[in-house]
Structures are given as C-alpha cells and as structure tokens.
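A reminder before we start the practical. When you read a complex entry, don't treat the lines as separate problems. The point of joint prediction is that each chain is placed relative to the others, so the output describes one connected object in space. Small molecules and nucleic acid strands, if listed, are placed in the same frame. In the example below there are two entries. Take a minute to note the order of the lines before looking further.
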Amino acid sequence: MSRLLVCPPEYFQIDYEINPWMRRTNAVVPSRAASQWQALMTVLERDVGAGIERMPPVEGLPDLVFTANAGVVVGRRALVSRFRYPERQREEVYYERWFRGQGYEVLTLEKTHYFEGAGDLLGFPDTWFGGYRQRTDIRSFPALSELFQREIIPLELIDGRFYHLDTCFCPLSGGELLYFPGAFDSYGLAAISERIPAERRIAVPEEDAIRFACNAVCVGKQVVIPAGCPRTMQSLHDRGYRTHAVELDEFMKSGGAAKCLTLALD
Amino acid sequence: MTPAQETVLLQGHIIDSLILAKVLDTIVMMGGTFDLQDVKIGATREAPSQARIVIRAGSNRLLTDILRTIQPHGAALEREADCRFESAPAAGILPEEFYATTHLPTQIRLDGEWVDVEGVEMDLAICIDPAMAQARTIPMGAVKAGDLIVTGREGIRVTPLARPAERDVFGFMESVVSSERPHQPVIADIAQRMQMLRERYRQGQPAAKVLCAGGPAIVHAGGRDALTWLIEAGYIHVLFCGNALAAHDMEAALYGTSLGYGLTAGRSVPHGHEHHLRTINRIRAIGSIEQAVQSGLVTEGIMAACVRRKVNMVLAGTIRDDGPLPGVMTDSMQAQQTMREEVQGVGLALLVASTLHAIATGNLLPATVPTVCVDVNPSVPTKLADRGSFQAVGLVMDAASFLKELARTLGWRP
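Here is the predicted structure of the whole assembly.
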C-alpha cells in the first residue's frame, strides 16, 4: 500500500508572494480549503486505497500543507529540503522533526544548495528527473545522485508559473509521462525525448497545465487530478488509467494542487 | 593581450541531460570561446560525469556576463591558487621543481591577480618580482642566486593560439610540410603580410619587424640578388646568420664567386677555394663589416644592403667557422641572448635554408609570431615542428627560388 504524508490546512493562507500564483489580495476561504482538502483525503484513502500519515499543522507556517516539499524519502532515509525563500525555510525544522519521530534516518544537503524535495525531484524506477533554476539549485543533484545511487537528469524550468517540476511533469506508474512541454527549453525536451519514447509522452495542453493537470497523484492505475482538465483526463483514460477529479482551486491560489499536498513515503 | 579567462567545473548527469551542451552553446552564443578539458564520463548510469571548461572572452566584462549566465546551470568557478615559487639555490641553478615554459602566452597568479609573463619563449623558467607584480622568462644560465622562480603547475595559465583574423596561410598556424604543396599562394600570402608590416614598421607600430634567418645556400643557389633587393626595399629589418652567409656574400662582392664557384659562369675558378678565406682576411684587416661597406670595399650584396639600411645583424659562429669575420659571436650563449633581444618586436619570421639558425630562432620565438620555414630538405621544417614550433608554415623549396618569387611578387624587376 502507498503511504502519503499530508498536513491539514488549518493555518493555510496567503501570507506572502513567492510565486506568480500567489496574491495576498486573493485570500483563501478557510472553510472551502478545509472541505477541498478533506475531499482529497477521502478520494486518496477510499477510492485510491492510499495510506495517509498526517503531520500536525503549525500556526504561522501556511505552506506546511504542501508536504511534497518536505524532502525526498527513499526506503527508511529521508533527505530534508533546504528552501530557497526564508518564508518557507522555517518549515524545514518541522519536517525534520516529523521524519525523526517516525524513525527515518535524516539526511541534509550543504546549506548553500537549495533543494525543494519531491516538488523538484520525480522519477521512474531507473531514472530520476530534477527541476532546477526556479527553486532548486542544480548543484544539489550530484549530491542526491550519490546519496541515492540514481541517475538524475536535470531539467531547467523556464516558465515562472511552473516553478516546481511537479507542476509540469508527472511520471505515471506505467512508464508514461504527463508533462507540459512549454515549461522546458529545447535541451530539456531533447533529454526527456531521449529517455521517454514518444508513445509514452502525454503532452498536456496549456489550458490544462495552468489548471495544474500535471500536479496529479498516481497510485497504480489511479490518477487523482485537479478538476477542470477534461482533455488530460481523456488522455489518461485512453491509456487505461482511472481518474479522480478533485476541486482544489483554494490551493491553486498558492500555486499548488493534489501532488503538492502529498509526499510519497514509499 | 591575453584574453580574460576563467575555469569552471560542471558535474552531475551533464551529458544525457544536455546541460554540458547547453553551457557550451551559451558560452559561444554570448561571444566567448571555450576549451573542454578533463571530461570524465561516469562509468555507470548512476555515476556522475565531470567537465572542466576553460572559458575565454574578449573582455572581463563579457567573461563576467558569461559566468553569471552559466552559473545557474551548475558551472562552478574552479578555485584557483596563486603560483608557487622558490629562490634559486645558486647562480645558474634553478629550483628542482621549476616550471618550464612553452612559447605560448602565459600568465601566473600572484596575490590573486593574473600577471602576464613577459618575454614568451619555450624552455625557460619564470622569474618573478612579487613586489612589482611582474614576471618574465629567464634562461637557466642567467639565473642569479636568490632569484624567485615559479615552481609546480598551480596558478599558471597557458593560452592556446587563437586563430588570427587574417584568412591567409598563417590563419591555420599548422606546420603541414609537403613538397607537393603549391608554393605560389603561400608566397603571395607572405608577400602581402610583408607589405602590411613594412607600412606598420614605417609608422613605428609594434610587432612590425620582419626577421630573416638564413644560411649560405642563399648565396650558392643564387638568391643573393633577391634578398639584397628585399633588404634595400625595406622589407627586412633583422638578419640572423652565421659566418658563412656573410663570408660568401662578400666573397661574391669581391671575387664574383661563392665558395670558389663563379656565380655567373657556374664553374670553379682557379684557386677559388681560397676566395672566402681572402675575403674574411680582408674584412678582418679593415676591422668590421660596417667599415668594409662604408669604406667602399664591399659595394653590393646582402651585407652592404644591411649596413646601408641599418638592418640589425646577429652573426652567430659555429665550430666549423673560418676566421671568423669580425662581429661573429663565438660565445654561443652571448649569441643566443642577442638573438633573444632581437626577436622582440618581430611580426614575421622567414627561416631560409639553414637548419641550425631555423631551429635556434624557432626556439626563441613566441608561437604568436607567424613563421615560415623554407628548405629544400623536408626534414628541416619537420624538425622545427618536432622541436615545438608548431606554428611554422613549412615550404619545401629551394632558397633562391623562394626569395626570387617573393621579391618578384613584391615588385623586384631584375
């Protein structure tokens, strides 16, 4: 069974602006956020069959809800993120505390190398891809590669709207890739094509990409996807995936959706 | 001037991700150039690769812009150290680990600053003055006890030759030696360059001198008139030769023979083998080559032209020399030092029909000086290249034919 780390949105709001989606004037409606988050949990637990681990929310840390950025977990080892913006650096200690409390071996990178966890590191069993430039420093990848003995292909993120790799790139369990080509440069696209054959690449149209179609959670043949991405859902159906659309627009105000709200633990 | 330069390291999965390609493309697109050094490809898929890239740009500002642009792609500046140096233990003795120079533009790092090494020449050491932030090459024999000599390899940069802007035969700076190479286009390029340098020389610009290092075959083979004309017409500014070229040239002036052979009749004349000795003796009696010309004893030929045009001559002696003529340096280290001084400001070197002088001169020249080596024997330009003067253009042809063709191209009408 897949286990996912989540954090309830009790203190979720827009206190600062660190990506193009965030507008302090575009306030979160707490009751809607709570119900959307709860609906997501229900789908994950009941329809998808994932195990859910909840970490306690912390007042004053609105983005702690986006647990995808806690770090990256491989087996019993957890590497804790080092956030680029000071606003989110305060979250690091809480994620670390949670991992330690659960008995994970906690690893860290050099302080000078920013790395924003599973938000910028996604992969297939043999190859991982790392997003860089917007948040994560490319120089963190050689260290990660050595720690986890994996090849990591860095991909430059060239569009500020897609500031984490998980906003424009989503590997699926069958080896397909859901991605928005406009978020990458020609070098990145060539590197992706080199590793993932054309028949396995599912290019998401821009109107779905800005509805966070790529910020989906895939468990087995089930894909939990933000509502409002019909063309992407059709593409997934065509390849034999079952889709679960969840309304997550309160979280999109902050630049995140289904994937950002979860961290795969195994 | 040495271009601005920095070395960066790029590591990780830089090959399949095309990050290396992206960084290199960026450098070129921004107007820089690069040298890819030490590319280590990861042995397995998981293992990272590493590349060391030397980046050069026309200005420090452009270099900074390039570094700033490639830094987000992981290109990290290599931390460079100052060069190391030690005192010379005694006069004429270098520290054990001394750095041996190449004939390429070189810089050393002193107190975090890159300093150009003056007097670029191969096979020397580098002597520094840290207080003045100066560095220059120094021959082993000239070292004084306590001189500060650069050791090891850290903090030393050698800049490979940039391809010159001129699209002539020197643009390739490659010593392809072939007797089948068509001569005429090469000679036309040399002539064009000499024309340009004569103009620059007249305007007092730097690196405008043309050096000719030649052997006596120039006289024997019949190239004397052409070389004389080239000197008279102001195309040659420095002459390196030995006792023989000077002796046979003046023998021709005094007796009409070269090593006893009548230059016009083409056969040996009675007692002709003595002519060069009698020539040397007469010049010794008069005191100097300059005197011989000024007094009217020697009225024409290469030496006369040099004296009249105030061409600097360095006559370096050998063991076989007769006489020698006055002015011939018999101390070879002194000759080497004088030649070293005379190659300063040379913008073109013609090494014609002399193995010894060609290689000796080649050793003294920085690689940035366009060089032509002309010899009827292909082994001479080959040997010159083997000794490190890879920039020399080799022409396998007879000295007289070369000089005549060159002079004709420049306007000689015999």
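Discuss with your neighbour: Chain B has a mean pLDDT of 90. What might explain this?
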